[in-house]
Amino acid sequence: MVGEHTMKEIMTPREAAEYLSVHVRTIYRLAKNGEIPGRKVGGSWRFKKTALDEWLSGGGESHTSCS
User: Fold this and answer.
1) pTM for this one?
2) Spatial distance between the Cα atoms of 57 and 51, rounded to a whole number of angstroms
3) Which residues are bridge partners to 46 per DSSP?
4) Domains of the chain by residue range
């Protein structure tokens, strides 16, 4: 079980926005433009914390999927 203070590995746009200290609309815009790593799951965006960390450090590319 994940502790209450531990960030989840898979985040919603709202959680990703909070994690990155940006507005949720910024997350949607970046995801839609393929500028941030994320995937659409059942019509909703999801983001892996590790992918966001790599993206922030400049080591990861943004991979998006509109499934």
Assistant:
1) 0.76
2) 10
3) 39
4) 10-65
Mean pLDDT per 10-residue segment, the chain (67 residues): 63 97 97 96 96 88 54
**Residues 36, 28: contact at Cβ < 8 Å?**
no
Pairwise CA distance, residues 41 & 21, whole Å? 23
Q: Provide the residue count of the chain.
A: 67
DSSP 8-class letter at 42: T
Q: How many whole angstroms separate alpha carbon 53 and alpha carbon 60?
A: 8
CA atoms within 13 A on the CB side of 4: 0
End-to-end CA distance of the chain: 29
